[in-house]
Each structure stands twice: as C-alpha cells, then as structure tokens.
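FIELD: query
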Amino acid sequence: MDKKKTLRSKIILVTCGVIWQGRELLIAQRKPDSLLEPLKWEFPGGKIEFSEDPPTALKREIKEELNFEIEVSDILCVSSHNYRQGPDEVKHVLMLAYSCAYKKGIPEIRDVHDFKWVRVENLDEYDFAAADLPIIERLKSLYSRPDRSSQAPAGSGDRPLADRDCLVSKLKEEVNRFVSERDWEQFHSPKNLSMSIAIEAAELMEHFQWVTVPEARLLTRDPDKYEEVIQEVADIAIYILSLCNSLNIDLSESIGKKMKLNRKKYPMEEYWGKFTN
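FIELD: result
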C-alpha cells in the first residue's frame, strides 16, 4: 500500500504595525539576508514570543528594528499567507496588523535594510512581501483619497510652501501681503490678534475633546478630520505671524532665546521623562 505524502504546514503567529504619522505610514525593507523574500517592503513587526501579547510583541519589535516607540491601537486586519520552503513543507504566516501611531524617538535603521514614510496612495510603488498585500488592499479601501490640496484652484498670490525650504521671514511676508491686499491692518491690533489666537486654539481643542490619547494620535487616519485639524493649526500660526508683524517680533530669535531659558529652567538630568506644570 502506497503511503501518501502529507504537506506539513508550520503556523507562525506574527504581528505588524501600520504606523501613522500625519498622513504618512512607515514601511520597512527587509534585509538582503532575510530568509523570506529578501529586500521586499513590509509593515514592520515580527514574531510573537511565548508569553507575549501581540501589542507588547509589536512594541518590542519596533524598538529592536527601528529604535522608536509607538502607540498600539485596534486591529486593522488579519493576513494569512503560505510560504513554501521545500517540496513537502509550507510555512503558514498568520499576521495581526495593528493600527499604530508614532509616539517617541527618531526612527533609525537597526534590524532593517531601509525605511520610508509614505502615503497610502503611494504604496503600490513598492514591492511588498506577499503577506502584506492584503493589508495594503485594506488600507486603500479605507483611506486612499485624492489630495484635495493639490486640486484647489490657485489664487493670484498663491505659492507652494514647505517647511523644508521656507524661511519664517517668507511666511511673515506671505501673511502680511494677504492682510495688506485687503486693508486689514486696521483691525490687526495686538488685542484682536491675541484674542484670535486663543479662539482658534479653542477650536483646535474641540477636535480632541472627547477622545483618548491613542485615539488622538490616530486621528490622522481620517483624512477629513485631519484636514480640519490642519486648517485650525494653520489659522493659529497665521495669527501668530500676524501678531509678530504687528509688534515687530523676530519669531526665530524669540524662540531661540526662550529655548535657552528653558534649558536652564528644566535641566535634562533633572527633568528627563518628567512633565511639569
């Protein structure tokens, strides 16, 4: 009687993080010597060790691979994939994908080949590991939307601005030009501007009024809510720049002086990891 060969499948339980920072997600590239799909891109994570719960394992893996801390929220989806290792053996990867938020530290290459921050609509540009593909489809179904800011009609004085190449003086000029074009300087007294800053700050607070800390960090998953927060932050910044214009305050110089005072007032060795009123 012939013996039938049975296909052996080893189930490995792993976890990964869909880590948000603003509108972008962190993806990592596997090392060249990886046993499975070397140099493929993935959502970072790893095996769940004995006695670990998945969120604890995920936090540990992110720290080991990229040396920063995350806030772990709810499960986004579960992915299942079979990797054939030989003619008679299959490795079955069952992966729990968690929605996460950046919390603390600067990501760096530790146990990965590379990493990038990308938007959902750009994920298709990368060659992902097979087990991660269902996660991408889930993300695209939930969060992939056109960037409305790039579709907005340009006005006569509109210019593309970005933190990486924009001086504070240019921002002050941009705000001042807008105000001058409308003859609004007459209304921009220090009293009115300081009150406007407080009012806009209160409107920003409304977006976070009834949510938990993890929910607040992950608010950026919702493009509409995130856009509302961006608009409120922009309003606050515009009024601050207007106040600086009104009172002839050099904002960069003021921040530099204040940070110098703060370093003396809150020495690192005394206040490391502590907050104060």
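FIELD: remark
The first helix runs from residue 54 to 66.
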